[in-house]
């Protein structure tokens, strides 16, 4: 299950690798001969320097506050979406619920860690696992006309980001973005779920929270089909891929030049792509794909 914010975040995470340098020495008549490295296969795993990648992610956490205004990406800390969700469902045949959610705000996207042991880079693909201890979303909600502020707290979120990319005419292009998300636990408070019974609302909020990890796992495995959510995620992926490829093209980056750029980003050099947090976008520029 891919989240919009996660798709955006993958813009700056997806291609972080260390440079590949290999030399083989052989002795001949007392002389040392340096053999040029063979070109690795595009599918061979590439080594990476963990301290450099760690510095990169530290820089990313700061960058999320700024966003990338030059590419239309606003601040993601917090992420604000000016989008109104409208849907309805039957609560176990007990109650017909019409839901409207707006002014959605997501906190916690800059608090994450990565797992080097499960990270993999090649010249054509990347897999990066991330862990978020706490992601919380607030929204103004209306249930059958009863208004209130609802929230969802996701605890110990494991995210796997996958990307496929290729070079053409000395430029790098992302051809596919995917991934998955798993939850350990969730807490839900839907305002005015049962306006006349606070006790019943508490029971159902707890039940919904406990069921979320199971529902997410079913969605990941394709055993749960939610057409509306599938359309939403498809739009998010389209937006993310266009944003990434626009950035790669704008800076004339192929795979090797991107690696150099990411190292500069990690080291915070003056010619890196980091931006000043005072220039952070505070509007809702990210919601264009949500209107599709």
From TrEMBL:
Signal peptide boundaries: 1-22
Biased composition annotated in UniProt, kind: Polar residues: 27-44
Top-level taxonomic group: Eukaryota
InterPro entries according to UniProt: Haemolymph_juvenile_hormone-bd (IPR010562), To_sf (IPR038606)
Region (Disordered): 27-46
Keyword annotations: Signal
PANTHER family: PROTEIN TAKEOUT-LIKE PROTEIN
Name listed for the protein in its UniProt record: Lipid-binding serum glycoprotein N-terminal domain-containing protein
Species, as recorded: Anopheles maculatus
């Amino acid at each position: 299950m891919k989240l919009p914010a996660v798709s955006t975040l993958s813009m700056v995470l997806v291609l972080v690798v260390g440079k590949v340098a290999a030399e083989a020495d052989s002795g001949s008549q007392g002389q040392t001969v340096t053999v040029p490295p063979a070109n690795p296969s595009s599918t061979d795993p590439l080594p990476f320097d963990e301290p450099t990648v760690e510095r990169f992610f530290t820089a990313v956490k700061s960058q999320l506050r700024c966003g990338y205004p030059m590419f239309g990406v606003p601040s993601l800390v917090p992420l604000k979406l000016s989008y109104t969700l409208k849907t309805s469902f039957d609560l176990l045949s007990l109650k017909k619920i019409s839901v409207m959610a707006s002014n959605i705000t997501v906190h916690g996207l800059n608090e994450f860690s990565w797992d080097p042991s499960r990270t993999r880079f090649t010249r054509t693909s990347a897999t990066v696992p991330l862990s978020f201890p706490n992601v919380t979303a607030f929204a103004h909600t209306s249930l059958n006309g009863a208004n209130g502020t609802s929230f969802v707290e996701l605890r110990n979120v494991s995210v796997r980001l996958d990307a496929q990319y290729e070079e053409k005419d000395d430029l790098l292009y992302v051809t596919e973005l995917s991934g998955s998300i798993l939850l350990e636990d969730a807490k839900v408070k839907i305002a005015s779920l049962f306006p006349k019974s606070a006790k019943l609302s508490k029971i159902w909020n707890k039940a919904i929270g406990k069921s979320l990890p199971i529902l997410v796992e079913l969605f990941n495995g394709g055993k749960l089909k939610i057409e509306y959510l599938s359309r939403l995620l498809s739009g998010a992926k389209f937006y993310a891929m266009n944003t990434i490829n626009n950035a790669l093209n704008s800076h004339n980056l192929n795979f090797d030049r991107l690696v150099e750029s990411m190292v500069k980003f990690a080291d915070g050099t003056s010619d890196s792509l980091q931006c000043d947090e005072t220039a952070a976008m505070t509007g809702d520029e990210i919601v264009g794909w949500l209107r599709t």
